[in-house]
Amino acid sequence: MTLLHHGRAAPRLAALLVGLFAAALALATPVSAANLFEDLGGKEGIVRIVNDGVDRVLADSRIKGRFVDTDIKRLKSQLAEQFCHISGGPCVYAGRSMEQAHAGLTLRNAEFNALAEDFQAAMEQQNIPFTVQNRLIALLAPMQRTVVGQ
Ligand code: HEM
């Protein structure tokens, strides 16, 4: 009797456990954010986007003057960590807060838009689809109030 009971219950219990495990995984994984990291080409893709984006910023007469005293190698690596982190990748951004990093610069909205344009062009150059570009831009847009006017 016990054996018979066990024989029927075990597959059901196993199926239940598999279902619960799948549900727990789905809850634990920030699906859209994790996909954005992948859609940007993972850490390597993000490094390419950041390197190209910063090079465009440094060639952009609207804002390049802002970076004359900046350690560009450090800026690129901090930006790559930050983009990796906010897109759901396995990185930890350990740089300054946006308020601290831009303190005393009193940046204008037009300068913020110029930088966003340069990064969008970098993503275009890396063949990142428009919808994916917009998902990263949508994560950067709320930072405007912490970057501009500090
Ligand atoms: C969403 C927009 C932006 C993001 C995510 C961002 C992100 C960052 C990050 C991660 C750093 C490095 C912080 C550190 O090393 O601790 C940084 C530094 C810097 N950012 Fe931005 N930034 C943004 C917009 C801008 C804009 C619009 C400008 C100027 C046009 C700008 C100018 C600078 C400068 C000059 C530094 C270096 C400051 C220093 O060396 O002390 N940023 N930014």
From TrEMBL:
* Iron listed as a keyword: yes
Q: Which InterPro entries match?
A: Globin-like_sf (IPR009050), Globin/Proto (IPR012292), Hemoglobin_trunc (IPR001486)
The yes or no answer to whether the keyword Flavoprotein is present is no
Protein name per UniProt: Group 1 truncated hemoglobin
GO MF assignments = heme binding; metal ion binding; oxygen binding
Question: Keyword set for this entry?
Answer: Heme, Iron, Metal-binding, Signal, Transport
Origin, by domain of life? Bacteria
**Residue span of the signal peptide, if any?**
1-33
Pfam families assigned to the protein according to its UniProt record, in alphabetical order: Bac_globin (PF01152)
Residues at which heme binds: H102
